[in-house]
Amino acid sequence: MRLGSGTFAACCVAIEVLGVAVFLRGFFPAPVRSSARTEHRAEPPVPEPSAGSSSNWTKLPPPLFSKVVIVLIDALRDDFVFGSKGVKFMPYTTYLVEKGASHSFVAEAKPPTVTMPRIKALMTGSLPGFVDVVRNLNSPALLEDNVIGQAKAAGKRIFFYGDETWIKLFPKHFIEYDGTTSFFVSDYTEVDNNVTRHLDKVLKRGDWDMLILHYLGLDHIGHVSGPHSPLIGRKLSEMDSVLMRIHTALLSKERETLLPNLLVLCGDHGMSETGSHGASSTEEVNTPLILISSAFERKPGDMRHPKRVQQTDLAATLAIGLGLPIPKDSVGSLIFPVVEGKPMREQLRFLHLNTVQLSKLLQENVPSYEKDPGFEQFKVSEKMHGNWIKLYLEENNSEVLFNLGTKVLRQYLIALKTLSLSLSTQVAQYDIYSMMVGTAVVLEVLTLLLLSIPQALRRKAELDVPLSSPVFSLFFYLMFLVLSAIHIIVCTSAESSCYFCGLPWLAACGVMALISALLCAIMSVLTKMFVRGSLPSKNPAHPNSGWSELDLLMVFGTVGHVLSLGASSFVEEEHQTWYFLVNTLCLALSQEIYRSYFLRDDGEPQCCFHVEQGFAGAIPALQDRTGCDTREQDRVHMSSSLSEVLRGCEKWMVLASPWLILACCRLLRSLNQTGVQWAHRPDLGHWLTSSDHKAELSVLAALSLLVTFTLVQRGCSPVSKAALALGLLGVYCYRAAIGNVLFPWQQDNRDISKGIIEARFVYVFILGILFTGTKDLLKSQVIAADFKIKTVGLWEIYSGLVLLAALLFRPHNLPVLAFSLLIQTVMTKFIWKPLRHDAAEITVMHYWFGQAFFYFQGNSNNIATVDISAGFVGLDTYVEIPAMFLTAFGTYAGPVLWASHLVHFLSSEASSGSALRHACFCYALIGSIPVSAYIILVTSLRYHLFIWSVFSPKLLYEGMRLLVTAAVCAFCTAMDQTSRTKA
Amino acid sequence: MKDTDIKRLLYTHLLCIFSIILSVFIPSFFLENFSILETHLTWLCICSGFVTAINLVLYLVVKPNASSKRSSLSHKVTRFLKCCIYFLMSCFTFHIVFVLYGAPLIELVLETFLFAVILSTFTTIPCLCLLGPNLKAWLRVFSRNGVTSIWENSLQITTISSFAGAWLGALPIPLDWERPWQVWPISCTLGATFGYVAGLVTSPLWIYWNRKQLTYKNN
């Protein structure tokens, strides 16, 4: 079967996407879960252990507190309370910490330090898997056993005010609630006032058992202006006064009830030095946890260095404090100081309940749990506990009882610690079999792509795909049988859960058949190569096969980038790699230009300087000739007319263009500092977004939109030109409506709206332009007119995407869009056309610039930098599919715009009919090399210290990038098909 | 092409390497607390001075391009001034390139500039000595098949290896090892120096190895 190399590449990438998906499913392990997950049936609590005689205490112990208030302040870092900021801005809290009846701790949050997984960790006590971050947007109802669910089942009345993530996580759990949205990051007063305004009423009424307040303001301040902003101090004082109000109200209420109340102050995650969160730096994981209750002893003393606990410990502590069963999936241990004041028997009972729950979880998740040190400790302590109860029931000497009790207690605490630790390490269990299957598919596809380079990049750009060769079909069946046997053996013998075994057998067989078919294809290509290689001296395929410096740079750059992915620092600072490569590319281009320009007079062989003007008439005549011939012809043809064509300003522009591009890149680089090491450096983006520089931002945004319009409109039809102008105007109106930029006539801050109407106005034009473009493309296919219609159609699709990007980009990122268009224009006019690069080189350049622009936008290999607000543009509420699409497009706008420019440029050139196919093949190849290499790297580094904080997010980014590549290749192939059917 | 030429080339190169080694050890006799990493800027100045001096001396003694005609004193002076201007121009150009590559614009200006100076010392000064202030000749030497003598060939190799060294020297900067030599621009200057030395060592060997294949137009 003969296939165009573009189609072949698109198929390969599609298969690769499947392989990566299987790999990802195996790599991101399912979190530690209790098997009885779905049923919320209350099991009878474990009776107290006792040796010999049976204990009479089989019920759950009674609650310790009557009312619980949880004040969760988003992004509350530990030093905001315990550090100098706390002393300065939170005097009341500091007083409580130092002298009041309270226990304070530093609670360590496990990465990913993002709100939803953290809330889950706080309320279920389990460690949410990494994939939960990706579902952060989605936040479906929490199905796991958790404190809120238990409290509701026990008939407690729960009130909630704050971040609406809670309401999504716990639907119908709250008697009264008011959700605030974390969508408008620039708003940090209203969100918190919406919470605080309920306080007076609620505190007075007192008809609740549990009150949860989630304040978002601090997090918003952090995102906008960082942890050292003066706004932080004001917000902390506000929070301090809120805490004081609640505490005094609780104290006054306490006189009426028998039991004391509990006030919990905690943060869900910290805040990095740049004000963001998501990773695992010390600033992000350390949060304060303060438990305040009159039940605790006042112990004056220096509390500057609080004890460290895990964030997951809160769930177990709350459950015991409220007299509820501990959530089944909790890996946390009871925070012991809370129960310290109770009688010895109760203390032991609490610890026993906790250890029993943990050991059950261990039994369900670890096959060889009996050898686990934690389990052994548990057995020992349970036995000691039993003996102690026996003594207690026999009413022995109290001093002996006490001494023995402390011993049991210590034993229990050790058991708790070990159990909790071994459960936490359980989270990092990989599903190796699925990973292997995915890797096999990806590697086979890559090998196939690499082997078919010589065939695919020939002039005809077609290659044989061997599918029906009979010898290999026998080999295929053998392979298939062997693989199926392996599959059955692995799946029957595996003790841990495995995703791939859980698939229906038809799907598994399909994947196995795919793997063996790919292997057969590789084998046949290899044999063909050997057969052809043994033939004596075939005709030279490339007359000028010497590689230019540019080609060398591209190969070495790609290899170097792939190798750099093995180091965590290079993954964190990947933007530096791309900036470095793009800069070097520009210098190499300038060297090429200078050489071909200055050595032109000497008649050197390098002279290959061409300019399109005065030559356009020759294009159709040359069209049917093959690429290399064309080049030679051109060269002879051009050398005479070069000097008159190249004159004046044109010449200078050609010479200056690499430097112009370099300068643009330097400006863009200082717009968004990203990465980790230098992320705290001041950048233009932060300067522009601060509220003092709104006017400058407005001018810049307007200017960028203007530049965008002038650069995009030249290729459009008049109708879409008008639509583009109106659309860009709409973008500015949208940004003005949501309060990012100002109109010149509007001086003060108006009320902020969501800008729904403006955004939808722009969407209409985007769809209109895209529709016109598609219509033109279809027309060009049907009527078979000149390819001008097709070029215009492609340009219209491109301009539609530009308009969408303009709408989704934050205003300070609009210069990125303008510069991207500028660089594309300059390179098209002054570099690619005159220097006649071939399709492969142009593709690689587009890919590199696309990658660089991905980082110029402010993205990084950290999940926290994804601009989620793009998913809400023009939407009233969260609608999953459009929001995901918009966020993905907003994030990958740079690469997508460069890729669509590539398609337009190559099909408008039309000097060689196979350019688009070559481009598609190269794009697929250069896109799949990093993914394949990275999959192997990650597999070998899976026990690396930074696997969760650095390598895993990058893996998700790579997977997403491959999806984008697949889409680009599919589009490219479709365009190629239309041009071929026409011809 | 004779073996004696290659031998002369080798000796001159060994002298250059020796001057770099001297620039590391001699200053510690005169200056207190001298070390490459801590007083990096001083070392840069000294190294640049040494290499420039040895290049000039070698140029005057060896006279590789003996074909140049006798010329008047004024011609020589203008030539010398032109060379100085070219050198300064190259320093500023390199500085601009470094900033475009991402070097801080305002902070560490002196460091960046001295890096530009040392890179110019390794690349521009040999070019000026050998080819004179003649841009066309430079372009000829640095394009494919453009060299006309072993001196130009070795110049090509050392210059390219200096650039490559400086380029590779930037790679360890993002790594989080927190070593003193990862600070801007130390790794780059060290890279350039190592590249230059490597070029000096390899170019005679390479020319000797390929002496059969090498044919120059003017020889």
UniProtKB/TrEMBL annotation, chain A:
Membrane topology value: Multi-pass membrane protein
Transmembrane segments: 432-451, 471-490, 502-531, 724-743, 755-772, 792-809, 878-899, 920-943, 955-975
Database matches in InterPro entries: Alkaline_phosphatase_core_sf, Phosphodiest/P_Trfase, PIG-G_N, PIGG/GPI7, PIGG/GPI7_C
Gene3D superfamilies: Alkaline Phosphatase, subunit A
GO (cellular component) term, any one: endoplasmic reticulum membrane
Record-linked SUPFAM superfamilies: Alkaline phosphatase-like (SSF53649)
UniProt keyword terms in alphabetical order: Endoplasmic reticulum, Glycoprotein, GPI-anchor biosynthesis, Membrane, Transferase, Transmembrane, Transmembrane helix
Compartments where located: Endoplasmic reticulum membrane
Record domain GPI ethanolamine phosphate transferase 2 C-terminal: where: 651-958
This protein's pathway: Glycolipid biosynthesis; glycosylphosphatidylinositol-anchor biosynthesis
Xref: Pfam families: Phosphodiest, PIGO_PIGG
GO molecular function per UniProt: CP2 mannose-ethanolamine phosphotransferase activity
An example Gene Ontology biological process: GPI anchor biosynthetic process
Family assignment from sequence similarity: Belongs to the PIGG/PIGN/PIGO family. PIGG subfamily.
Name listed for the protein in its UniProt record: Phosphatidylinositol glycan anchor biosynthesis class G (EMM blood group)
Gene source species: Prolemur simus
Name of the gene encoding the protein in the UniProt record: PIGG
TrEMBL record, chain B:
Membrane topology, as annotated: Multi-pass membrane protein
Keyword Endoplasmic reticulum: yes
Domain of life according to the entry: Eukaryota
Claim: Transmembrane helix is one of the keywords in the record: yes
UniProt keywords, alphabetically: Endoplasmic reticulum, GPI-anchor biosynthesis, Membrane, Transmembrane, Transmembrane helix
Transmembrane feature ranges: 9-29, 41-62, 83-106, 112-133, 154-175, 181-209
Subcellular locations according to the entry: Endoplasmic reticulum membrane
Secretion signal span: none
Protein's pathway: Glycolipid biosynthesis; glycosylphosphatidylinositol-anchor biosynthesis
Listed Pfam families: PIG-F
Record InterPro entries: GPI_biosynthesis_protein_Pig-F
GO cellular component: endoplasmic reticulum membrane
Gene Ontology biological process terms in this record: GPI anchor biosynthetic process
Protein name in UniProt: Phosphatidylinositol glycan anchor biosynthesis class F
Organism in which the protein naturally occurs: Prolemur simus (Greater bamboo lemur)
